[in-house]
Write a structure and sequence with these properties.
The chain is of the alpha/beta class. The protein contains 7 helices and 6 strands, in the order αβαβαβαβαββαα. It is 39% helix and 13% strand. It starts with 19 loop residues before the first helix and ends in a 7-residue tail after the last helix.
Length: 228
Protein backbone atom coordinates (compact mmCIF):
# COMPACT_ATOMS: atom_id res chain seq x y z
CA UNK A 1 0.00 0.00 0.00
CA UNK A 2 1.46 3.36 -1.03
CA UNK A 3 0.92 6.82 0.39
CA UNK A 4 2.21 9.78 -1.68
CA UNK A 5 4.86 11.57 0.41
CA UNK A 6 7.32 13.85 -1.35
CA UNK A 7 7.98 17.58 -1.18
CA UNK A 8 8.50 17.59 -4.97
CA UNK A 9 4.80 16.91 -5.71
CA UNK A 10 5.92 14.93 -8.76
CA UNK A 11 4.00 11.68 -8.25
CA UNK A 12 1.59 10.86 -11.03
CA UNK A 13 -2.07 10.10 -10.32
CA UNK A 14 -2.41 12.45 -7.32
CA UNK A 15 -3.16 16.15 -7.29
CA UNK A 16 -0.95 16.70 -4.26
CA UNK A 17 1.50 14.85 -2.06
CA UNK A 18 1.99 15.62 1.60
CA UNK A 19 5.17 17.49 2.35
CA UNK A 20 4.74 19.72 -0.69
CA UNK A 21 2.67 22.42 1.00
CA UNK A 22 5.17 22.65 3.87
CA UNK A 23 8.08 22.99 1.43
CA UNK A 24 6.29 25.74 -0.47
CA UNK A 25 5.56 27.55 2.80
CA UNK A 26 9.26 27.40 3.70
CA UNK A 27 10.33 28.73 0.29
CA UNK A 28 7.70 31.48 0.36
CA UNK A 29 8.87 32.60 3.79
CA UNK A 30 12.45 32.74 2.48
CA UNK A 31 11.32 34.91 -0.44
CA UNK A 32 9.49 37.28 1.91
CA UNK A 33 12.74 37.73 3.83
CA UNK A 34 14.87 38.14 0.70
CA UNK A 35 12.71 40.98 -0.61
CA UNK A 36 13.86 43.14 2.28
CA UNK A 37 17.59 42.77 1.69
CA UNK A 38 17.23 42.79 -2.10
CA UNK A 39 15.44 46.13 -2.04
CA UNK A 40 17.63 47.79 0.59
CA UNK A 41 20.88 46.77 -1.16
CA UNK A 42 19.57 47.06 -4.74
CA UNK A 43 20.63 43.52 -5.56
CA UNK A 44 19.47 40.57 -7.56
CA UNK A 45 18.67 37.76 -5.12
CA UNK A 46 18.42 34.19 -6.38
CA UNK A 47 16.72 31.49 -4.33
CA UNK A 48 17.52 27.93 -5.45
CA UNK A 49 14.84 25.45 -4.36
CA UNK A 50 14.37 21.69 -4.58
CA UNK A 51 12.04 19.76 -6.86
CA UNK A 52 14.39 17.70 -9.02
CA UNK A 53 12.79 17.43 -12.48
CA UNK A 54 9.49 19.08 -11.51
CA UNK A 55 9.08 22.80 -10.90
CA UNK A 56 6.10 22.78 -8.56
CA UNK A 57 7.92 24.24 -5.53
CA UNK A 58 9.59 26.97 -7.58
CA UNK A 59 6.41 27.93 -9.42
CA UNK A 60 4.11 27.95 -6.41
CA UNK A 61 6.50 29.76 -4.07
CA UNK A 62 7.56 32.17 -6.80
CA UNK A 63 3.99 33.25 -7.46
CA UNK A 64 3.11 33.36 -3.75
CA UNK A 65 6.33 35.13 -2.79
CA UNK A 66 6.30 37.82 -5.46
CA UNK A 67 9.30 36.71 -7.52
CA UNK A 68 10.06 38.54 -10.76
CA UNK A 69 11.73 35.54 -12.43
CA UNK A 70 10.89 31.83 -12.05
CA UNK A 71 13.01 29.14 -13.69
CA UNK A 72 11.66 25.58 -13.83
CA UNK A 73 12.76 22.34 -15.54
CA UNK A 74 9.67 22.23 -17.74
CA UNK A 75 10.54 25.51 -19.52
CA UNK A 76 14.20 25.67 -20.62
CA UNK A 77 15.38 29.25 -20.09
CA UNK A 78 17.48 31.70 -22.05
CA UNK A 79 19.85 33.68 -19.85
CA UNK A 80 19.36 36.64 -22.20
CA UNK A 81 15.67 36.73 -21.28
CA UNK A 82 16.48 36.63 -17.57
CA UNK A 83 18.99 39.47 -17.89
CA UNK A 84 16.54 41.53 -19.94
CA UNK A 85 13.96 41.13 -17.17
CA UNK A 86 16.50 42.53 -14.71
CA UNK A 87 17.42 45.38 -17.07
CA UNK A 88 13.76 46.21 -17.71
CA UNK A 89 13.16 46.64 -13.98
CA UNK A 90 16.19 48.91 -13.76
CA UNK A 91 14.76 51.13 -16.49
CA UNK A 92 11.55 51.42 -14.48
CA UNK A 93 13.50 52.49 -11.41
CA UNK A 94 13.08 49.10 -9.70
CA UNK A 95 16.60 48.32 -8.63
CA UNK A 96 16.12 44.86 -7.18
CA UNK A 97 14.99 41.54 -8.65
CA UNK A 98 14.02 38.24 -7.05
CA UNK A 99 14.73 35.05 -8.98
CA UNK A 100 13.46 31.60 -7.97
CA UNK A 101 15.44 28.82 -9.62
CA UNK A 102 14.41 25.19 -9.38
CA UNK A 103 17.45 22.95 -8.94
CA UNK A 104 16.46 21.04 -12.08
CA UNK A 105 15.99 24.07 -14.34
CA UNK A 106 18.31 24.13 -17.31
CA UNK A 107 19.28 26.60 -20.05
CA UNK A 108 17.83 26.19 -23.52
CA UNK A 109 19.93 23.57 -25.28
CA UNK A 110 21.83 22.81 -22.08
CA UNK A 111 21.72 20.20 -19.38
CA UNK A 112 21.06 19.98 -15.64
CA UNK A 113 23.54 21.42 -13.14
CA UNK A 114 24.92 18.71 -10.86
CA UNK A 115 27.12 18.55 -7.78
CA UNK A 116 29.91 15.97 -7.51
CA UNK A 117 30.14 12.59 -9.18
CA UNK A 118 26.98 10.59 -9.84
CA UNK A 119 26.90 7.24 -8.08
CA UNK A 120 26.08 4.37 -10.41
CA UNK A 121 23.13 3.25 -8.30
CA UNK A 122 21.60 6.66 -7.57
CA UNK A 123 19.98 9.60 -9.33
CA UNK A 124 22.16 12.56 -10.25
CA UNK A 125 22.67 15.03 -7.39
CA UNK A 126 21.29 18.28 -8.74
CA UNK A 127 22.59 21.65 -7.58
CA UNK A 128 24.56 24.71 -8.59
CA UNK A 129 22.02 26.19 -10.98
CA UNK A 130 21.54 29.28 -8.82
CA UNK A 131 25.27 30.04 -8.75
CA UNK A 132 25.52 29.60 -12.52
CA UNK A 133 22.60 31.94 -13.20
CA UNK A 134 23.84 34.46 -10.64
CA UNK A 135 27.29 34.60 -12.20
CA UNK A 136 25.82 35.23 -15.65
CA UNK A 137 23.45 37.94 -14.43
CA UNK A 138 26.24 39.79 -12.63
CA UNK A 139 28.57 39.52 -15.62
CA UNK A 140 25.97 40.61 -18.19
CA UNK A 141 24.10 43.31 -16.25
CA UNK A 142 26.63 44.56 -13.73
CA UNK A 143 24.08 44.07 -10.96
CA UNK A 144 25.38 42.77 -7.65
CA UNK A 145 23.90 39.30 -7.28
CA UNK A 146 23.58 36.97 -4.31
CA UNK A 147 22.50 33.33 -4.25
CA UNK A 148 20.71 31.47 -1.46
CA UNK A 149 20.38 27.69 -1.65
CA UNK A 150 17.46 26.78 0.58
CA UNK A 151 18.44 23.11 0.57
CA UNK A 152 17.25 20.73 3.25
CA UNK A 153 15.51 23.43 5.25
CA UNK A 154 12.61 22.71 2.90
CA UNK A 155 12.42 19.14 4.14
CA UNK A 156 12.11 19.73 7.88
CA UNK A 157 10.39 21.71 10.60
CA UNK A 158 6.74 21.89 11.55
CA UNK A 159 4.39 20.86 8.73
CA UNK A 160 1.57 23.14 7.66
CA UNK A 161 -1.96 22.47 8.81
CA UNK A 162 -2.79 21.29 5.28
CA UNK A 163 -0.04 18.66 5.29
CA UNK A 164 -1.01 17.47 8.76
CA UNK A 165 -4.61 16.96 7.67
CA UNK A 166 -3.72 15.48 4.28
CA UNK A 167 -1.37 12.80 5.61
CA UNK A 168 -3.92 11.85 8.26
CA UNK A 169 -6.63 11.45 5.63
CA UNK A 170 -4.23 9.41 3.46
CA UNK A 171 -3.38 7.15 6.38
CA UNK A 172 -7.01 6.51 7.24
CA UNK A 173 -7.81 5.70 3.61
CA UNK A 174 -4.85 3.32 3.37
CA UNK A 175 -6.03 1.38 6.42
CA UNK A 176 -9.53 1.12 4.94
CA UNK A 177 -8.09 -0.29 1.71
CA UNK A 178 -5.95 -2.83 3.57
CA UNK A 179 -8.98 -3.98 5.57
CA UNK A 180 -10.88 -4.38 2.30
CA UNK A 181 -8.04 -6.44 0.80
CA UNK A 182 -7.38 -3.85 -1.93
CA UNK A 183 -3.58 -4.15 -1.96
CA UNK A 184 -1.01 -2.97 -4.48
CA UNK A 185 -2.52 0.50 -4.64
CA UNK A 186 -1.57 4.10 -3.81
CA UNK A 187 -3.88 6.52 -2.07
CA UNK A 188 -4.52 9.67 -4.12
CA UNK A 189 -6.02 13.11 -3.72
CA UNK A 190 -8.11 14.18 -6.70
CA UNK A 191 -8.54 17.80 -5.67
CA UNK A 192 -11.98 17.15 -4.21
CA UNK A 193 -11.84 13.64 -2.74
CA UNK A 194 -9.49 10.83 -1.70
CA UNK A 195 -9.28 7.74 -3.91
CA UNK A 196 -6.67 5.16 -4.92
CA UNK A 197 -4.96 3.87 -8.07
CA UNK A 198 -2.79 0.85 -8.89
CA UNK A 199 0.81 1.45 -7.83
CA UNK A 200 1.95 1.02 -11.43
CA UNK A 201 -0.14 4.04 -12.46
CA UNK A 202 1.46 6.14 -9.76
CA UNK A 203 5.12 5.45 -10.56
CA UNK A 204 5.10 5.04 -14.33
CA UNK A 205 6.03 8.68 -14.92
CA UNK A 206 6.52 11.88 -12.96
CA UNK A 207 4.00 14.69 -12.72
CA UNK A 208 5.42 17.96 -14.00
CA UNK A 209 4.24 21.55 -14.35
CA UNK A 210 2.39 22.01 -17.68
CA UNK A 211 4.26 24.76 -19.60
CA UNK A 212 0.95 26.17 -20.82
CA UNK A 213 -1.13 25.22 -17.78
CA UNK A 214 -2.83 27.43 -15.22
CA UNK A 215 0.19 28.18 -13.05
CA UNK A 216 2.44 29.14 -15.96
CA UNK A 217 -0.35 31.26 -17.49
CA UNK A 218 -0.86 33.02 -14.17
CA UNK A 219 2.85 33.78 -13.90
CA UNK A 220 2.91 35.25 -17.40
CA UNK A 221 -0.21 37.30 -16.69
CA UNK A 222 1.54 38.76 -13.63
CA UNK A 223 4.52 39.77 -15.74
CA UNK A 224 6.81 37.14 -14.21
CA UNK A 225 9.67 36.14 -16.51
CA UNK A 226 9.92 32.40 -17.09
CA UNK A 227 13.13 32.72 -19.07
CA UNK A 228 11.45 32.09 -22.42
Amino acid sequence: MGIPKTIDNDLAATYMTFGFDSAVACATDALDRLHTTAESHRRVMILEVMGRYAGWIAMMSGIAGGAEVILIPEIPFRIESVCEAVAARERLGKHHTIVVAAEGARPHGGTFATVGEQASDREARLGGLGAMVGSEIEKRTGKETRVVVLGHLQRGGSPTHWDRALCTVFGAKAVELVKAGALGRMVTYTGSSVDSVPLADAVGHIRTVPPDGGLASTARALGICLGE
